[in-house]
Design a protein that fits this description.
By secondary structure, the chain is an alpha+beta fold. The protein is built from 11 helices and 22 strands. The protein has helices at about 10-25, 90-105, 120-130, 145-160, 205-215, 235-245, 315-330, 335-340, 350, 375-390, 440-455; strands at about 1-5, 30-35, 75, 115, 135, 140-145, 165-170, 170-180, 180-185, 190-200, 220, 225-235, 250-255, 260-270, 270-280, 280-285, 295-305, 335, 365, 400-405, 410-415, 425-430. Strands 5-13-14-17-12-20-18-19 form an 8-stranded mixed sheet. Strands 1, 2, 7, 8, 9, 10 and 22 form a 7-stranded mixed sheet that branches. A 3-stranded antiparallel sheet has the order 3-6-4. β9 and β10 form a beta hairpin. The chain is globular. The protein starts with a strand and ends with a helix.
């Protein structure tokens, strides 16, 4: 019998375990992770495979550290982006949690440097963005880089391995709920874990499982916005006016034709575009490193759309769009912006004749207009033209667009202000997979918050 069982070893689950072991060192805690230990995680595509083999458990997404392990490790130190924790508690409380979680990252080896703290510089860039009808969000960033991120996560793994029980390569099959109270978890290896409290932190990779499991147990959920878009790749000098000063810029635009919100996400100066595999569906993402650099910068443009009743399937909607791209290109599609505007597909010859060399060499030249709905595509085009006003060259005919980038947030779970699931006692749901957060630092903060809540009971 465990005091606490945690599903998922992403930042939310890891930080919950760190805080519980700090406050209650004598408690029995078990952490269940479907992937491997950090040192055993690998991606065959990154190791020389020409095409993504479609591993059953994607090495970039599953395992210790979650999807953030191989990301560039950006900690956005503000409540204004990266999640919805301010919906559950006072802003000052979220700020305290973010500061505390950031301190733990530093304790385990994160770099000291924080970008975007010069308010005078930010105000000038904010003014330039406003002239282009763009909103620049103040978001100081601590950048670890993929290499440092892996070291930090390895240090956390080694620390917790001596203090709690960690199961790797084991998945949670179903929750055990009796009389509206969680009793434990049934695992896919046939074993049962009994625990007084259960924390569900499956990340985006486990969002589909979470949605189905909660529907089975009649746990209430509400629709989240669906984020669908592309990853943009362009020469690094084009965005240097922003990246040299802020490293990552969070820009929001309300596209004039439909009024939909378009935002930049996960900006990677001198980084590379990467392919991920969500349960057999290939999607695109971006990484940047502390030591290794490329000549390109990449970032996502995501169109957020919140649907009303009777729509209840945000994950399936995103999977469907991504599947269309996979169907046409056998994986990830890439298209030059000029070809998109001209209404023609990109070809290998056209890509090779560009001034930009794609960092994701396995992407198939094609036509994204056959995949992305007209509404979202129109908004993306309008956003690129707006960005061109503050960073000339963004809307170049050579700019590369990769698709599809989609964020698999489940419908948001109905939670109390303590992040406890409504209707099932002692069951807490946190992190990106629950639709509560959208980034490393708020996911980490949510783990700290529920750990403190549980330890007080």
């Amino acid at each position: 019998m465990y005091n606490v069982a945690i599903i998922g070893a992403g930042p939310a689950g890891i930080f919950a375990a760190l805080e519980i072991t700090s406050l209650k060192p004598d408690w029995n805690v078990i952490l269940i992770e479907k992937g491997q230990k950090i040192e055993k995680r690998k991606c065959l595509l990154r190791e020389g495979y020409a095409k993504c083999p479609g591993c059953k458990k994607c090495g970039l997404l599953c395992g210790w550290g979650g999807a953030g392990a191989f990301s560039d490790g950006k900690l956005t130190l503000t409540p204004d982006v990266g999640g919805h924790l301010v919906d559950y508690m006072d802003r000052s409380k979220v700020e305290e949690l973010i500061d505390y979680a950031d301190g733990l990252y530093l304790k385990f080896g994160a770099t000291d440097e924080v970008f975007g703290t010069d308010i005078k510089t930010f105000k000038e860039l904010e003014r330039q963005a406003a002239l282009a009808e763009l909103k620049l969000v103040h978001s100081p960033v601590r950048h670890l880089g993929t290499e440092r991120s892996l070291n930090v996560l390895k240090n956390m793994q080694d620390y917790l391995d001596k203090r709690i029980t960690i199961l790797n390569d084991v998945s949670a099959k179903s929750l055990i709920v009796e009389c509206e109270q969680v009793k434990g978890i049934e695992l896919d290896n046939g074993e049962t874990v009994c625990a007084e409290y259960t924390i569900i932190a499956p990340g985006r990779e486990g969002a589909d499982w979470l949605t189905k499991e909660f529907a089975k147990n009649k746990i209430g959920m509400v629709n989240n916005a669906v984020d669908i878009g592309v990853r943009v790749e362009l020469p690094a000098p084009v965005f240097e006016p922003l990246t040299d000063k802020l490293y990552e810029s969070k820009l929001i635009y309300y596209a004039p034709t439909f009024g939909d919100e378009v935002r930049t996400f996960c900006m990677n100066p001198n980084g590379e575009v990467v392919q991920e595999n969500y349960n057999g569906i290939s999607t695109v993402n971006g990484h940047s490193y502390a030591e290794k650099t490329t000549n390109n910068t990449n970032f996502a443009l995501l169109v957020s759309k919140k649907f009303t009743e009777p729509f209840k399937e945000p994950i399936q909607y995103g999977q469907h769009i991504a599947s269309l791209a996979n169907m046409l290109g056998g994986g990830i599609l890439v298209q030059r912006f000029g070809d998109l505007l001209d209404g023609r597909r990109s070809t290998p010859d056209r890509i090779n004749a560009s001034i930009i060399k794609p960092t994701l060499s396995c992407a198939t030249p094609g036509d994204l207009s056959l995949v992305i709905p007209y509404r979202q595509m129109t908004s993306i085009i309008e956003m690129l033209k707006a960005l061109d006003k503050i960073c000339p060259g963004t809307a170049s005919r050579y700019t590369l667009l990769y698709g599809i980038e989609v964020k698999f947030y489940s419908a948001r779970v109905k939670l109390t202000n303590e992040l406890e699931t409504e209707g099932v006692k002692n069951l807490f749901t946190i992190g990106d997979g629950a639709g509560v957060t959208r980034g490393l630092i708020q996911a980490s903060a949510s783990g700290v918050y529920v750990a403190r809540t549980i330890c007080k009971r």
